[in-house]
Amino acid sequence: MTKRIVAFRRLKPHHLEQLRNHFHVDYFDTLEGPDDPAFREALRNAHGLLGASLPITPELLDDAPHLEAISSISVGVDNYPVEELTRRNILLCHTPDVLTETTADTGFLLIMASARRAVELANMVKQGQWTSGIGESHFGTDVHGKTLGMVGFGRIGQAIARRGALGFGMSVLYTHASRKPALEAELGATHCEFEALLEQADFVCVNVPLTAETTGLMDAAVFKRMKSSAILINIARGKVVDEEALIEALSSGEIHAAGLDVFAQEPLPGDSPLTRMDNVVTLPHIGSATHETREAMAQRAIDNVIDALEGRRPPSPYNDVTPRG
Ligand code: DGY
Hints:
325 residues, seven-stranded parallel β-sheet, five-stranded parallel β-sheet, NAD, hydroxypyruvate reductase [NAD(P)H] activity
């Protein structure tokens, strides 16, 4: 029997061809939401599901009784009810590693752009407002030699820290459940308590996954503890930051600036105060968005779903479920 999969994110012809060599594919190149009737109908017979950025609920899983594997084209799995999937014996796969360096580049881009006010000043030039010499009111702050505080020290956090320590001579502080002696030796990084990191870091860089524990982690009390010269960087998930508290902290001068790739609501609503603040760099969730990396992510997701549905251990399983084959 040829297994059936539902693919719901824009894929290139060569991706679809690979999938069609193994499965019957119901492909939705655009999908407004999970209630699309044709999508729900296709799910009823699907053994595999491949896509990203769609919250998967237990109610949706009830409509997919044959589902064996979900292959997400993302490293983050906050859109999936992981325990529920495991309980239903559904294997979840994701795409770690292939996006680490690109996402770290984005993190460093935000550090540089927010410290040196690159977006604000580039806009000034484009709008014909560079009419006199640059003076103190246009100055930024240095990045090299400063203290980089990593909230979370997983693969991407480590890659940002490597750029900071080895490329920019930064001191690195990090919080993590366990110490990382090899990185401490390589980068001179120091493991510390969250509060100490907040008090000492010039750049507080958020790299933790979104979970029940990390939702709203960066709240008003956190911003009060940070230096008034500090810059917040978020490349993780928007909901890790209490956005209202952040806007208040940026407006009142409690913290200096922010560089954000992720938001509580995406796309960021046009009327969000964050869109109007000169001391905030806003990117449209482009952490991994390069041609090379998105290709690698799609390929990893395809390899995952093929292996999972053909009974082999896929390259990047997330939960502990044996492929049924
Ligand atoms: C990921 O892979 O989790 C990125 O944030 C894109 O969603």
